[in-house]
Design a protein that fits this description.
Order of helices and strands: HHHHHHHHHHHHHHH
Number of helices: 15
Radius of gyration: 22 Å
Strand content: under 5%
Largest sheet: none
Shape: globular
Length: about 325
């Protein structure tokens, strides 16, 4: 029996980004790209690379903080190595889904899958929460006064609603009953016993965190993204993209961050290029120059992957 076309689309979806990148290259002047490469200020790049380490350190510290609240104790060094390995595997998987590999370290040390997943899930959610918050508030600068008032009102409503929803889901018995019913509906019967234990561990441990913990996590996350925005601003300067203020560039990079999470490419190749062209072209920046900027961003990402590979050699799974 032949497999449906949807199976192949899902299996090889990461090739869509490569295909998109080929289309982009076919529509631009390769000679102009070479000229832009020659004009790159390579002396800026070492300063951009230096930012990789405070970014990784703050993210590792955040993950370590999350684990300690669960009474899972690792040194910051070990957390850094494990986090780096997650980046290494995530760098060669669509949508960076390989970062889930960090869970294997905890599981191999005797922690249940449900317990191990808590810190990983909250680690990823903290990035999403920051990016959404920054994006909402950042867009205020692009709207007129009336729209600002409306947007601020909507942000407050959504923010309050999310807090009520999250804490309500974690604390209230009706919501837990609903989640269990959903669990038993989705999970096949033969896996319900083992998976049920993991679900109980997950729900039990995620209730450990309080508002103060979430606030600390958000502040650490904000610091790590500040380092990232400064790093990319230096990269943009090296590509001679100097007309875009740091705030505008940060907002654009935030949107692109969401786009590259879609699992249709490896390391954001193709999707990042197309998104950058879409958002930077209105600033009258040539497409060839944008592609060079995107390539330098990929170079930074490959450096993260290289650091992760070194971490793998030191502390393999």
């Amino acid at each position: 029996m032949s497999k449906p076309i949807f199976f192949y689309l899902k299996k090889y979806s990461y090739l869509l980004g490569i295909f998109l990148f080929i289309i982009i290259l076919a529509k631009i002047d390769l000679g102009s790209i070479l000229v832009n490469i020659k004009n790159v200020k390579f002396s800026y790049l070492p300063f951009a690379i230096l930012f990789c380490f405070p970014i990784l350190l703050t993210k590792s510290y955040r993950w370590n903080y999350l684990k300690r609240k669960q009474n899972i104790h690792y040194s910051l060094k070990d957390s850094f190595l494990m986090y780096g390995v997650g980046l290494y595997i995530g760098g060669v998987t669509p949508g960076r889904i390989g970062e889930v590999s960090k869970v294997l370290y905890l599981k191999n040390n005797g922690h249940s899958l449900g317990k191990s997943l808590v810190s990983l899930v909250l680690d990823r959610i903290s990035d999403f929460a920051f990016l959404l918050t920054f994006l909402f508030f950042g867009l205020i600068f692009f709207l007129d006064l009336i729209s600002k008032q409306i947007l601020i009102f909507l942000i407050v409503i959504v923010f309050v609603f999310l807090i009520i929803l999250i804490f309500g889901f974690l604390k209230s018995k009706p919501s837990q009953t609903l989640s269990k019913k959903l669990f038993y509906f989705i999970v096949p019967k033969k896996y319900q016993k083992s998976w049920g234990v993991n679900l109980q561990d997950f729900v039990k441990d995620i209730k450990i965190y309080n508002f103060k913990n979430y606030l600390i996590i958000f502040l650490i996350t904000s610091l790590s993204w500040l380092f990232y925005y400064l790093q990319m601003y230096i990269v943009a300067q090296s590509a001679n993209i100097t007309i875009i203020p740091l705030l505008h560039l940060s907002i654009i990079l935030t949107v692109i961050g969401f786009i590259t999470l879609i699992p249709i490419s490896i390391s954001g190749i193709g999707t990042r290029d197309a998104a950058l062209i879409f958002f930077l072209s209105p600033f009258l920046i040539p497409k060839e120059q944008i592609i060079v900027f995107s390539s330098l961003m990929l170079l930074m990402y490959l450096f993260y992957t290289f650091v992760g590979f070194i971490c793998w050699l030191i502390k393999p799974i």
